[in-house]
Amino acid sequence: MVSFDLSDRSYAMEREQHVQQMRQSYRPRVPDARVMRSAQAIFYVFYQVHQRFPAPPTGVAIDPGNHWGKLLFSTQPILLPREFFIPIDNLETE
Fold it and tell me: Over the range 14-44, which residues count as b (16 or more CB within 10 Å of their CB) and which as e?
């Protein structure tokens, strides 16, 4: 039976190195213009229906395959593997 001591410093350092390597190897994809227009449309429709809302959305999560998306209000968005997160600042300026 194998056991791991999570308080072991060597394990913690190895885990941290692995996480840093994963972050460095990950390069976020850039959505194309059609996906951006779809995200803007999602935001625009929401804004037209709810002109006054207590907290502004942080962005739009959108699937580039079918252009289905939803507004997100949390600061830590949870996305499905195929989804993009487009911050609200990028939608308002374009």
Answer: eeeeeeeeeeeeeeeeebeeebbebbbebbe
